[in-house]
Amino acid sequence: MNYPSSNNIVYKRKRLYDYALAMLALLMPLVVKGFPVLIVIAATIGIAYFFRAYQRLGKPKKDYYILPYNLLKDAFVNIFKFKGPLLLMVILFFVYFASTFISFNKSLAFQKIILKSCYLYFPIIFSLTKWDKSRLLLVLDFFIYGCCLQVLISLLDAFWASGFQFNSFEFTYVNLSFNLHPGYAAFLVNIGFIFNSIRIISLYKEKSSLSGNWWRLIALVGFLAYIMLLSSKAGILTIMVTIVTLIVYTLIIFRSLKFSIFLILFSLIIVSMFSYTFGGRALIRYNRMKNSIEKKQELTDKTKKISSSNIRLVLWKNSWEAIKKSNYLGYGLGSGKKALQNNLKINEEKFVFGLNHNAHNQFLEIMLSIGFVGFLFLISILLTSFIGFGQFTTISMLLIFIITVNFGVESMMEKQSGSIPIVWLLCLLASGKPIFKSVFKF
Question: Residue 2 in 3-state DSSP?
Answer without folding.
Answer: coil
